Amino acid sequence: MRKDNLRRTVVAAALAGVVAGSVGTGAAAAQDLAGKTVEFVIPFAESGGSAAWANFFAPLLSKHLAGNPTVVVRYRPGAGSTEGANWFQEQKTADGTLIFGTSGSTQFPYLLDDPRVRYEYKDWKVVLSSGTGGVVYLPPDLGERFDGDFDDLKDENYLYGSQGATTLDLVPLLAFKLLGLQVDPVFGIEGRGDGRLMFERGEANIDYQTTSAYLKSVVPLVEQKLAVPAFSYGALDADGNIVRDPTFPDLPSFKEVCEATEGCETSGVGWDAWKAFFVSGFAAQKLIYLPGGASQEVVDMYTKAFEDMIAQPEFAKNSEETLGVYPQGVGKAAMAAHEQAITVTPEAKQYVLDWLKEDYGITMQ
């Protein structure tokens, strides 16, 4: 499904555009990490999409960073990823041996003024952005009744394993609300991989995974007829419209399913809020940062490493197989994604805050 030539052309064009828009680094390789170990920290458990993403990039960074250091992925899960982000905020390592990978689950508490947040994105130095997608799926007994809308599935009671309503799970939970589904989230899991395990054990009957985790761990379930995909969240086209995710062109986007489901509206403040957090959580979802104290020389070294990596002929194919069909941004493109990820309109923010209070009793104080 993911091997068609058209989408390979899209990937190549997207990657070419990203590289063309990046900041030129010139001879930035005066910095050298020979003999050193780079810790690539992600604030999640090792079973989810962020782990797959980090483990894809770690060996490539080792190959392309000056001095070919060892790059090791470290996991610091807790408090919906805010614990790891708070830890990173306090780090003073400035020599390039520490990088941090965030996700929408880290961006959302920041956007919503979560009191657990003691980190400031504007203090950090972004060196890569990765867009991604997500797929919602059902067990076979419900999946066989799904025909492009949820009209016949609204009377079902759903259980969903969630990291928390202010994490990246905000996007599916708000989508479920707009669709009119009765979904009871089981809060407290450490990563989306734990949500998938709940689904596999029959403890949850609706789930979603980001693209990398879906390709790795859910596609085998689909092939064994143990799971049925319902929709992807979609992707943004050049004009900012939601279209089908190029990694899953055969799946309807959430917008299509919403339009087909009675009572679900694709206009108004509810839709605007969902789209705003979808953009922050998926179109600009994953970002790699250096601590704020890193020098421009270190930033340039990482930018050059990612530019060289993306320019390799095999990168598009390998990244498609592991991460899906999404551009990787460096330089100016990474900065633009960083701005998208940490920006939300007051109206969308207030809608989400009101919804969190009314449906889950969550207030940001």
Automatic annotation (TrEMBL):
Keywords: Signal. InterPro entries: BUG, Bug_dom1, TAT_signal. Residues 1-30 form the signal peptide. It comes from the Bacteria. Coiled coil: none annotated. Belongs to the UPF0065 (bug) family. This is Tricarboxylate transporter. It comes from Pseudorhizobium banfieldiae.
